């Protein structure tokens, strides 16, 4: 039986249908498609059988043939979560939605609906949408980096206020008295802010978790502040244990700065495991995937994250000194630091981004992978990991069959779920009504 008081690793499955390595889908054993529901369902069940905390769906609001194969075509994430909630029973269900290209009332209602349908397993990954070209698909201009976060701060507060529209027991449905919903148990938000004016109440009862879990993945100053004030889980991309420890410390200090306990927020870096029976076999596996990567398909991914075209520069020369972009600020900083630290050429950096998009890539035997996770976990560089298999389903099956049992043997990961909701899995309390 899992000792729930003991600090244990949290695991998320970062589900991208064509895998995380840009060429993963070309592997003979790979199945692919972020629009392939049968594959997404089977993979989610594999993660549930391995007792993962959650399955996580990223999202973007653009497409194009140059995009990562996992993102060219994909289901609208909340629609997909509704379907996955019917074929799973315990694993948390996290989806990404934008505060720049959505309305608070719509998102509050959709995530609360998923929380009801899934009996308390919903989570919202709050993004401000970094890519300026997104505005081409919406009748508006793309706000600057810091303004996007100011909008997001207000957006999140409106959504949380709407989630508290009704007391848990408001829907009395008293056939005697004819009272369906108790007027004494409704809370009108009447929000009038700089960017939003939202009256309420929300047209769905308060959900099983009270509030679905909030996730944030911004690592810049404004990103960390939003996360520290509002998030339950923080995703991040970190290259080394030292970088991850520095981010972890900075984020937790901000959490305490907002009057919260440090352990109210779980930090989960992205983690791309390439597993072999020997370290050499693992390295060969990555080399096999890299050999299928055409520099032409790698460059757009790098330029997107650096926020600059590199067309005028020698691919076999160093990354030029460029101003840090207004798009994915922290990712641009991370990749620039990586290129400098390892003296990478533009070509080498592009291939590294094509493999893991700046997240931590770990090659090795199952024991070596488990050792790395234990080092980051016990070194307070992470409270858990967002697992990013290079391709599906084999990349995940290797991890769940070979690495998870080692983590369980060491008492670092649960052997079974002890609760029903995602909050139970994360050990995060159900919030009381904010407006009470
Ligand atoms: C694990 C992870 C997942 C992310 N998923 C998404 C996503 O699905 N959609 C999106 O627009 N941005 C996503 N992002 C990007 C972040 O939301 C954010 O824009 C980025 O980390 C830069 O943040 P910053 O501007 O605060 O530095 C993700 C980031 C991380 C680390």
Structure description:
The chain is an alpha/beta fold. The protein has helices at about 35-50, 70, 75-85, 105-115, 145-165, 220-230, 240-255, 280-290, 295-305, 330-340, 345-355, 365-380, 395-410, 420-425, and strands at about 10-15, 55, 90-100, 120-125, 190, 195-200, 215, 235, 265-275, 360-365, 385. It has a single domain, classed as TIM Barrel. The radius of gyration is 22 Å and the shape is globular. The two termini are about 35 Å apart. The model has no long low-confidence stretch (mean pLDDT about 95). Flavin mononucleotide (FMN) binds near residues 59, 220 and 329.
**How much helix is in the residues?**
25-40%
Contiguous uncertain segments of 5+ residues: none
The secondary-structure class comes to alpha/beta
Number of strands: 11
Portion of residues in beta strands equals 5-15%
Bound molecules: flavin mononucleotide
The CATH topology is given as: TIM Barrel
- Give the biggest sheet: 8 strands, parallel, barrel
Radius of gyration: 22 Å
Mean pLDDT level: 95
Oligomer: single chain
Strand order of the largest sheet: 1-2-3-4-7-8-9-11
CATH superfamily: Luciferase-like domain
CATH architecture: Alpha-Beta Barrel
Question: Helical element count?
Answer: 14
SSE series: EHEHHEHEHEEEHEHEHHHHEHEHH
**Quick one: overall form?**
globular
Which CATH class? Answer: Alpha Beta
Number of domains: 1
What gap, in angstroms, lies between the N and C termini? 37 Å
What's the topology here?
Layout (H helix, E strand, L loop, with lengths): L9 E5 L22 H13 L4 E4 L11 H4 L4 H11 L4 E7 L5 H14 L4 E6 L17 H19 L27 E2 L4 E2 L14 E4 L4 H10 L2 E4 L4 H17 L8 E10 L3 H13 L3 H12 L22 H13 L4 H11 L3 E5 L1 H13 L5 E4 L6 H16 L12 H5 L10
Parallel strand pairs: 1-2, 1-11, 2-3, 3-4, 4-7, 7-8, 8-9, 9-10, 9-11
Antiparallel strand pairs: 5-6
The structure holds flavin mononucleotide.
